[in-house]
Design a protein that fits this description.
Blueprint: E1 6-11, H1 17-25, E2 27-32, H2 40-44, E3 48-53, E4 56-61, H3 68-73, E5 77-79, E6 87-92, E7 106-110, E8 114-119, H4 124-130, E9 132-137, H5 160-167, H6 172-183, H7 193-208, E10 212-220, E11 223-232, E12 237-247, H8 262-279, E13 282-284, E14 286-293, H9 301-312, E15 317-323, E16 335-341, H10 345-361, E17 365-371, H11 381-385, E18 390-394, H12 418-436, E19 438-441, E20 444-450, E21 456-457, E22 462-472, E23 478-487, E24 493-504, E25 509-519, E26 526-536, E27 540-551, E28 563-564, E29 574-575, E30 580-585, E31 592-599, E32 603-611, E33 616-625, E34 628-635, E35 642-650, E36 653-661
Parallel strand pairs: 1-10, 12-14, 12-15, 15-18, 16-17, 21-27
Antiparallel strand pairs: 2-4, 2-5, 3-4, 6-8, 6-9, 7-8, 10-11, 11-14, 13-19, 16-18, 20-22, 22-25, 23-24, 23-26, 25-28, 25-29, 26-27, 30-31, 31-34, 32-33, 32-35, 35-36
């Protein structure tokens, strides 16, 4: 579903009416954690907390209700409240540079590194040229952190041989292709129409991988912006989520017309997309979300919107890996800095695990940096603030190793060290695969298609109809099991309800139509999950698919989950893998791609390419061919970027596949 999430945050340039009422009713200030106490002291002593940085917090308070002793204990320093058209921001500013912020900005607090400023949206491009780590404070009271939060499971470290198989699939060439594609938008400034196009492209890319793609909408400054999200559902723990993320928006000194944003942050976005490309071929215990944020350069607007929504809806996020600026070597070699909050054991463990995977399986090396409080300035920040374990990776965050083309029109792919960047991407990929608990490669895929998108079973029982498609993803014949399970409303699995032994030819697929599942009357009321699985029962699962149905009540005595239409004599398998267009690789591609198809016997074949307007642009094959798997290279060097379609025709039958050319 393209627009499942809609968040209207009333972020109107950039202070909401509710925020003004808070600031108007309360005094604002900066408070420091008293010696020997933790940050929960802010909440325990009655402050409203709006942001955390290090051992300090931006707080709201009523002077008359706080004793002088309490105010002194927290070393409270007063702050002016934002006026309409302004917002309060955190910003890192180097010593001696604060005067460069100009007259459009009011500095309300500065400790030599961390600044609190009042600024309008119009001033932000200039602000981001002077300082970095811009984080908007939405003046929304934050929840009190749990002293001991929910525990995440111990990350599963896979066998080295298996991880090396995943590592071998990450290539610098594919990484550079994604970087150049993101740079090709010319500007990904969040206010620009081309950023909307980038959001759509991110959505399409994730959807083309077979993920559940979403556009998460949020409102800011009178505009609607979107985060692109792809969800890969976990088989064992679908409600427990690991997120890998980066921001896809960019900024420069001329942001509306030229903000290529290669390092900041096409590098992190491409890491997310390449990881999604490779891991989407596997099945996992835990759900993975691949997220591309926008609004980061305006103060983490998109990630704050999603983190706050996730907190309000109790989303089961158990780990966030954020990658921001990861492809510049600088002067210190192939190092990646990994930040976590030293006060949060789960974040420390997550950071240590990522560092170990980078050090063990890539040519990069990690530098672990644990700070007091979440490191503000990138998209993990609000997840950490809202209690989700979240860590941050960057090639340098301060000092002489800093990227010299930061927030400029010269931030292009040509200035990156992609041989280093791909090593960081490899570390991200094997870490996420390990955390999510890989079950197996999708050498065979399954798809369930219910006859109705909304299935409601009456109390006395009933049935529903669905189709099954099984497809062999490999060039070798596969023998495997296919079975169906049902998850009862209380979470109890029941099944297998039916199992079949299946043989599929290389790149073959079968379809079974009009299967009928009986739902017994005594089955309890509630929401059910219906799962189709393929693999070697019960030890491994290659792939699964599911849909849901609702039962309104329970009555009767006969308890039977019979399936009809499954046996061969009842419903023959319709095998269409005999004549099949297998697709093209790579896809998306740059300049050339290989198109594959399978012929079981000698026949006349046509292979043609069409553009988006329906015009034939190339004839690749038009001849009689012998049986077997055929491979044809389409050299598209002389064609422009865009969507093309390859049509495979034999007799009166044809198949069409979508291809994406990116230059």
């Amino acid at each position: 579903m393209r627009l499942r999430f809609t968040v209207i945050l009333s972020l109107l340039l950039v202070v909401s009416v509710a925020a003004l009422s808070v600031a108007g009713d309360l005094n604002l200030g900066v408070a420091t954690v008293p010696e020997g106490q933790s940050r929960v002291a802010f909440w325990d002593d009655g402050f409203q907390v709006y942001a955390l940085f290090g051992n300090e917090a931006v707080v709201g308070f009523e002077k008359e209700t706080f004793s002088a002793e309490v105010l002194e204990k927290f070393a409270l320093r007063g702050l002016p409240s934002p006026v309409p058209g302004e917002a309060l921001y955190l910003l890192r500013v180097a010593p001696g540079d604060s005067h460069l912020l100009g007259e459009q900005v009011t500095i309300t607090y500065y400790d030599g590194e961390n600044a609190l400023i009042l600024a309008s949206a119009e001033a932000i491009p200039k602000v981001t040229k002077v300082g970095f780590g811009l984080t908007r404070i939405p003046m929304r009271p934050l929840p009190r952190p749990e002293v001991s939060g929910p525990s995440a499971r111990e990350p599963l470290k896979l066998s080295k041989g298996f991880l090396e198989d995943i590592l071998s699939r990450f290539t610098e060439a594919d990484y550079r292709t994604l970087l150049y594609r993101l740079q090709a938008f010319v500007t990904r400034y969040s206010y620009a129409d081309s950023c909307r196009a980038a959001e759509e492209w991110g959505y399409d890319y994730l959807e083309d991988l077979g993920l559940d793609a979403e556009l998460f909408e949020y409102s800011y400054g009178g505009q609607t912006w979107r985060n692109a999200i792809g969800t890969q559902l976990g088989l064992a723990f679908p409600d427990s989520i690991f997120i890998i993320c980066g921001h896809m928006d960019a900024i420069s000194g001329n942001p509306r017309y030229d903000a290529p944003g290669a390092e900041d942050n096409a590098s992190g976005s491409a890491a997310v997309l390449q990881t999604a490309t490779l891991l989407s071929d596997y099945t996992f215990d835990y759900t993975i979300q691949y997220v591309l944020f926008t609004g980061e350069e305006q103060g983490l607007i998109g990630s704050e919107a999603y983190a706050e929504w996730a907190y309000q809806h109790n989303l089961g996020i158990i780990g966030v890996l954020n990658f921001d600026m990861i492809s510049y070597e600088g002067g210190y070699g192939w190092d990646i800095n990994i930040y976590a909050d030293r006060n949060k054991p789960l974040e420390i463990a997550l950071g240590d695990f990522l560092a170990q995977m980078v050090d063990d399986y890539t040519d990069a090396y990690s530098i672990r940096l644990n700070e007091d409080g979440p490191t503000y300035g990138s998209d993990h920040f609000w997840f950490s603030v809202y209690g989700f374990p979240a860590i941050f990776s960057i090639d340098s965050y301060w000092g002489p190793d800093w990227y010299p083309w930061y927030h400029s029109t010269a931030d292009t792919v040509g200035n990156l060290d992609t041989d280093f960047g791909i090593e960081v991407v490899k570390g991200a990929g094997v870490t996420m695969a390990s955390l999510a608990g890989i079950l197996g490669e999708k050498i065979v895929r399954v798809e369930l298609t219910p006859e109705s998108p909304s299935i409601v079973i009456p109390p006395e029982g009933g049935s529903f109809t669905f189709d099954v498609t099984l497809a062999n993803s490999t060039s070798q014949a596969q023998d495997f099991n296919a079975w169906v399970d049902v998850i009862l409303p209380d979470g109890t699995p029941h099944g297998p309800l039916k199992m079949r032994n299946v043989h599929l030819a290389p790149h073959g697929h079968v379809q079974v139509f009009d299967l009928v599942q009986n739902v017994p009357g005594p089955a309890p009321a509630g929401l059910y999950q219906y799962l189709g699985k393929v693999g070697t029962y019960p030890s491994s699962v290659y792939d699964f698919d599911l849909f849901t149905f609702v039962k309104l009540g329970a009555s009767g005595e006969k308890y039977s989950w019979e399936i009809s239409g499954w046996d061969e004599e009842q419903s023959p398998l319709l095998t269409q893998g005999d004549f099949e267009l297998l697709g093209n690789f790579p896809n998306p591609f740059n300049a050339s791609t290989m198109i594959s198809y399978y012929l079981p016997e000698e026949m006349e074949v046509k292979l043609e390419v069409y553009n988006l307007a329906g015009q034939k642009v190339a004839v690749l094959v038009d001849e009689n061919q012998s049986p077997g798997i055929k491979e044809v290279v389409w050299d598209a060097a002389d064609y422009s970027s865009g969507v093309y379609f390859v049509m495979f025709s034999f007799g009166e039958t044809s198949e069409v596949r979508r291809m994406l050319l990116l230059k």
